[in-house]
Amino acid sequence: MAKQTVAEQFVDILVRAGVKRLYGVVGDSLNPVVDAIRRNAAIDWIHVRHEETAAFAAGAEAQITGNLAACAGSCGPGNLHLINGLYDAHRSMAPVLALASHIPSSEIGLGYFQETHPERLFDECSHYNEMISNPKQMPRLVQTAIQNAVGRSGVSVVTLPGDIAGEAAPEKSVETALVTARPTVRPGDAEIDKLVALIDAADKVTLFCGSGTAGAHAEVMEFAEKIKSPVGHALRGKEWIQYDNPFDVGMSGLLGYGAAYEATHECDLLILLGTDFPYNAFLPDDVKIAQVDVRPEHLGRRSRLDLAVWGDVRETLRCLTPRVRTKKNRRFLDKMLKKHADALEGVVKAYTRKVDKHVPIHPEYVAAVLDEVADDDAVFTVDTGMCNVWAARYISPNGRRRVIGSFSHGSMANALPMAIGAQFTDRRRQVVSMSGDGGFSMLMGDFLTLVQHDLPVKVVLFNNSSLGMVELEMLVAGLPSYGTANRNPDFAAVAEACGAYGVRVEKPKQLAGALKDAFRHKGPALVDIVTDPNALSIPPKISADMVTGFALSASKIVLDGGVGRMLQMARSNLRNVPRP
Q1: Taking the mean position of all CA atoms in its chain, how far away is CA 348?
Q2: What number of other Cβ atoms are within 10 A of residue 230's Cβ?
Q3: What residues pair up with 288 in beta bridges, in sequence order?
Q4: H or E segment at 309?
Q5: Is 173 exposed, middle or buried (0-12, 13-18, 19+ CB in 10 A)?
Q6: For 200-250, how does the pLDDT look when each residue is reduced to its tens digit (9 = 90+)?
């Protein structure tokens, strides 16, 4: 029996770690690995048109499944293309293993064709970044990379020269057990006691939740009920905490709405639960703050803390809730719920005037209709820019839907590549890419990936022929828009030319039918919706700080648009609580 090559052993280790596919673009230095995948029935090679797409797709798969995902790039320019998607995966805490293949090992450091230094280039977007320069480093180095990616929730990069990949691997006399799931982290009793004391001493407590509350919805609701706390959230916390939440006061941040800003500033104690909310200008500096996070390096880096608690949110609350005193006075909670409903009602009125007759179509209307017709367990991938606004305000979470985007890294062109990774996890689940025309056209070549693999992703294209968020930034800064206009084709015709389903929508009455027809189509589809480039109505009293410095609450209407069904939810909450 022939000995395994390093490439074959590398692929076997990925399979043992649960990796089902490797996204990438083939190339000479990658050939030994790709050929090993060809001969291994337990893993697939997913050919994409750009390595940036490969990294975004792997990151999305990891976020949807919670398991390790993988991508690869050939030497030099090939693996350099991975870097933007890897930054996004790393900042999203998605466990991803990236293979950066390399030039022949004998030529490293001599200015060889396509030479770069991956072991330096990927340091900032990875927990672990090492090169295999000798076959004897296998399999320990790859196993270590996997442990880092899974155990620390982020990216690991393995650099592998093509000639080393083809050499014989050492005998597999011992196979180290692989860690493929993270444990929960419980704070110590001393920290729990300190947090109990802070909560019991405070009359008004507000919870502000981020993505770290995933899987802790029930625990957060039980805790909020016991201490009569309003519950606000960051954008990445929306999908986990907004639904079935009678304590909801909306979202803080530039895209925020409702009374979250007021609730975080008018309390005695603010508890940050699993959030690394980046905009510290939205956080108060004159109230007590406690933070609970599973990543200790996140504690206190956004604001001054009175107490830092290192722990998983769910386990922390399971320890904490039975020990705090039940608060009887809900005056602060009810006041914030009313402010939330009143704030939403004012925003809704700005959007609802003859919206179903407005041409070009209001993008708010598109998002609202999309929310109604999409499946209850749909995955929405969201482009950075104005699509973030529409998703934040109109896509209704329910505990089964997922909404993912480049919410921490803020990259353009992420929605379509992420949809590819999300769809590969389950071809039967509806995956909707909420794409802007700028983001879609940047990586439009990978629409062909949908066709090639017959992935039934539905691209809903908000086509306002501009870089809308950039225009907003210029407007608020007092600058004329410049360099933001896009001269676009008929994207529906492009989709059809690629072999997919395409439809163009220019009138509101066509919208619902077009979306339903596209969603019923069995393969990939694109709905090109011509939207109003002037959809943002900026209030007359607005400062540049509101957008560029994030100094004021967006709940004071930074972006004057609708908020979908959130008003209905807020009013429903008010009907079920006693008046202050």
Answers
A1: 26
A2: 31
A3: 269
A4: strand 307-310
A5: exposed
A6: 999 999 999 999 999 999 999 999 999 999 999 999 999 999 999 999 999
